[in-house]
Amino acid sequence: MERVEWPRAILHVDMDAFFVNVHLLENPEDEGIPLAVGGKPGQRGVIASASYEARELGIRSAMASSRALQRCPKLKLVSSNRPMIRSCSAQVMDILSRYGTLERMSVDEAFVDISSQKNPPALAKTILERIKDETKLPASGGLSISKLVSKIASDFDKPKGFTVVLPGTESQFLAPLEIRKIYGIGPKTASLL
Question: Active-site positions?
Answer without folding.
Answer: 109
